[in-house]
Design brief:
alpha+beta; Beta-Lactamase; Arc Repressor Mutant, subunit A; 2 domains; 5-stranded antiparallel β-sheet; two-stranded antiparallel sheet; 7 strands; 47% helix; 19% strand; elongated
Length: 211
């Protein structure tokens, strides 16, 4: 689940607006501290590059922790940072894809408004993008992954007996109830998330689960 999406002016660090899908609750302070530190660092890098006459192209930064994923995307045409805070088990690639779409939508709709903002600091017109963000992210749920077993246990046991999958594959498949994320499965089985992701990909290719 994507908790928040922020649009921040990379020229001065001013927030244009934020879209909230779920409160951060108990982990809010730690996450926000890391988030704004990453924002400031990114802005410093951009400003230093520009001061030296270097062209700053699109850039992504992905910071992952046990509880969250922070994505920062710099759109060079608008000079805006499009940032998100999401669950650690969300699909980062999907978040990157939707962030690119949001940035392009923003640039098409608000190019003139952005010029006006940098003169007058008027941010009121940007809020029309919130509806686009909600639609593009499916209310913040676009990157959620809950693999689901699509064959019955007896068939899965036969596949194991045939040697098409191993014991770990079997255990992972049994955790695919449609309610467990890859991160939760990795913690339940005490395996690295990367290993679980490899197994899930294999199981999907064998038409054993649906991602």
């Amino acid at each position: 689940m994507i908790y928040k999406i922020y649009l921040i002016d990379a020229d001065n660090g001013i927030s244009l607006f934020e879209s909230t899908f779920r409160k951060l609750e108990k982990i809010q302070d730690d996450i926000l501290t890391g988030f704004f530190k990453a924002i400031n660092t990114t802005i410093d890098v951009i400003q230093k590059s520009m001061s030296k006459g270097r062209r700053v192209n699109e850039m992504n930064r992905v910071l992952q922790s046990e509880d969250s994923t922070i994505l920062i995307y710099y759109h060079p045409l608008s000079r805006i940072l499009f940032c998100s805070i999401s669950d650690a088990d969300d699909n980062t690639e999907k978040i990157e894809e939707v962030t690119h779409k949001i940035a392009n939508r923003f640039w098409k709709k608000h190019q003139s408004d952005l010029k006006n903002f940098r003169v007058t600091t008027d941010k009121s017109r940007f809020h029309t993008l919130i509806a686009d963000i909600e639609n593009l992210t499916i209310g913040g749920r676009i990157a959620e992954v809950f693999p689901k077993l699509i064959i019955v246990k007896k068939v899965l046991e036969k596949v194991l007996t045939m040697g098409m999958i191993d014991d770990l594959d079997f255990k992972v498949a049994m955790q695919c109830t449609g309610k467990n994320s890859p991160l939760k499965i990795s913690r339940t089985l005490d395996k690295k998330r990367t290993a679980i992701n490899e197994v899930l990909k294999k199981l999907e290719e064998l038409d054993i689960i649906m991602l």
